[in-house]
Write a structure and sequence with these properties.
This is Proline reductase-associated electron transfer protein PrdC. InterPro entries: Ion_transpt_RnfC/RsxC (IPR010208), Nuo51_FMN-bd (IPR011538), Nuo51_FMN-bd_sf (IPR037225), RnfC_N (IPR026902). It comes from Dorea longicatena. GO terms for molecular function: 4 iron, 4 sulfur cluster binding; electron transfer activity; metal ion binding. Pfam families: Complex1_51K, RnfC_N. By secondary structure, the protein is an alpha/beta fold. It has four domains: 68 residues; 156 residues, Rossmann fold (3-Layer(aba) Sandwich); 71 residues, Ubiquitin-like (UB roll), CATH 3.10.20.600; 105 residues, Rossmann fold. The protein is 24% helix and 22% strand. The chain contains 13 helices and 23 strands. It has a five-stranded mixed beta sheet with strand order 11-8-9-10-23, sandwiched between helices. Strands 13-12-16-14-15 form a five-stranded mixed beta sheet, with helices on both faces. It is globular.
Length: 471
């Protein structure tokens, strides 16, 4: 194992401040950095020695021997004991949204859903609901969609650790005073669904909701809409629908914090792509946070010849990275792609969507394809709540036409367009773009080609699927 690099910002909020010094001997679970504002504790993920502390990270040289034992939070975090509340244990453990968002889980769960009123519904996006609509109780909504195509670590964890998942759900319900929970999972995950059906036989307050295999069903507001029938505005949190949305892996980390007093020191991830070990999903559980991207790729067999790029995260929302970059609490995937096509300087328009890459990411991909960007449009539903903030989709996964943008690309003499849209929005682009002579690439094409997944073009999967499953 090479040096472990613990970034001081692995969460939404401010960077943490180191609480160890160079030369310190650390164990798995040793507290090494604490929040300076909104944030989450950071612990050493290995046994070893602190060799360097920089402005943005703590570097640890791992010891030759790595015992399984870890320092529990009751020994490493001041004020935490076996009698501490479940919420305090979650906060102390440094858990964040493991699905990629990175919001501190202890902050998210610090709500009493029993006393939380419904937010005001926007009648324009909820035309079928009365203005005074309310939900009868609070809900924990478990995001089990495994939204990014090609990833499998969440689904695998359901199949292998359903007991831990159910315990984590119950603890989340207890902490938030939620009366019910719904596990939102795509209908295609047949094995995981069967495992859950068995696990939920005697759990009347927890049920499943089956979703279509379209992107982005795992988006937080999409989960609320699919499970509860309420579409929130781009500025509303799930609490406006008396709910909290938590990712599968995050829920399991909650169970570990409560049952084992275990700090958040490891990550599950999918490594996939142009690898000597094959292009199927290589799933790794309990990877020490801070190991390098290159080390994880080697565990999957190493890179097979020439490649296009390495992505940390999913095909839609991930970013290009390097072999020496450290993994974090939010690293869900490492993808190695085939080479990019060479467009030899052809003119290209880019369509930026809230569901995919930023304008910067789209321009990066265009550059790697040797295209000249001459036009840029935003999806008509992409909302910028405040200057510089990430775009939010008005109706995630349910998009109207994009004819106006295609007309603009045609006017700007684009030979190609590069889109980063959701399944439905990509479908609407394809309804008119090719008819105008526009050749379409999707920002995920090089990843989809690598893993053998259908390209995002015309939508062939029905959005209508079964509703909630009761037991």
């Amino acid at each position: 194992m090479g040096n472990v690099q613990m970034l001081l910002r692995q969460h939404v909020g401010a960077p943490c401040a180191p609480c160890v010094e160079v030369g310190a001997e650390v164990k798995k679970g040793t507290l090494i950095a604490t929040p300076t504002g909104l944030g989450a504790n950071i612990f050493s993920s290995v046994y070893g020695k602190v060799t360097e502390i920089t402005e943005d990270r703590i570097i640890i040289e791992p010891a030759a021997e790595q015992p399984d034992e870890f320092v529990p939070v009751t020994e490493s975090v001041e004020g935490i004991t076996d009698e501490s509340s479940k919420l305090d244990l979650v906060k102390a453990a440094g858990i964040v949204g493991m699905g990629g968002a990175g919001f501190p889980t202890g902050v998210k769960l610090n709500i009493n859903l029993e006393e939380t009123p419904m937010g005001e519904l926007d009648p324009e996006i909820n035309p079928e609901l009365p203005k005074d609509f309310t939900l009868d109780c609070g809900y924990i909504l478990v995001n089990a969609a495994e939204c990014e195509p090609g990833l499998e670590h969440n689904t695998r964890q359901i199949e292998e650790q359903s007991d831990k998942l159910i315990r984590g759900i119950k603890y989340s319900m207890e902490i938030t005073h939620a009366k019910k929970a719904i596990i939102a999972i795509k209908k295609k995950h047949h094995k995981a669904i069967k495992v859950l059906q068995k696990a939920l036989e005697n759990e009347p307050d927890i049920k499943m909701h089956l979703m279509a295999d379209i992107y982005p069903m795992g988006e937080e507001r999409a989960v609320v809409r699919e499970c509860l029938g309420v579409l929130l505005t781009t500025t509303q949190l799930p609490s406006a629908a008396r709910s909290v949305v938590v990712n599968v892996e995050t829920v399991c980390k909650i169970a570990e914090a409560v049952d084992e007093k275990k700090p958040c020191i490891s990550k599950n991830m999918t490594v996939r792509g142009k690898l000597n070990g094959g292009n199927e999903a290589h799933v790794f559980f309990d990877v020490p946070v801070g190991v390098s991207v290159g080390e994880m790729i080697e565990k999957a067999g190493g890179i097979d010849g020439k490649y296009g790029e390495i992505i940390m995260g999913g095909a839609f929302t991930g970013k290009s990275t390097t072999l020496d970059a450290p993994t974090t609490k939010t690293t869900g995937a490492i993808l190695v792609t085939v080479e990019f096509p060479d467009l030899h300087g052809a003119t290209m328009g880019i369509l930026v969507c809230a569901c995919g890459g930023s304008e910067e990411r789209m321009r990066e991909i265009a550059s790697k394809m040797n295209a000249k960007v001459v036009s840029m449009c935003k999806c008509k539903q992409a909302i910028e709540n405040k200057p510089g903030a990430p775009l939010k989709c008005l109706r995630p996964g349910n998009c109207p036409g994009q004819v106006k943008n295609n007309m603009q690309f045609k006017k700007d003499k684009c030979e190609y367009i590069l889109i980063g849209n959701c399944s439905d929005c990509s479908n609407t682009v394809m309804a008119s773009g090719p008819k105008m002579g526009l050749k379409v690439f999707h920002q995920t094409d090089h990843v989809m080609r690598t893993v053998g997944h259908p390209l995002y073009r015309s939508l062939k999967v029905s959005k209508e699927v079964s509703q909630d499953i009761d037991f």
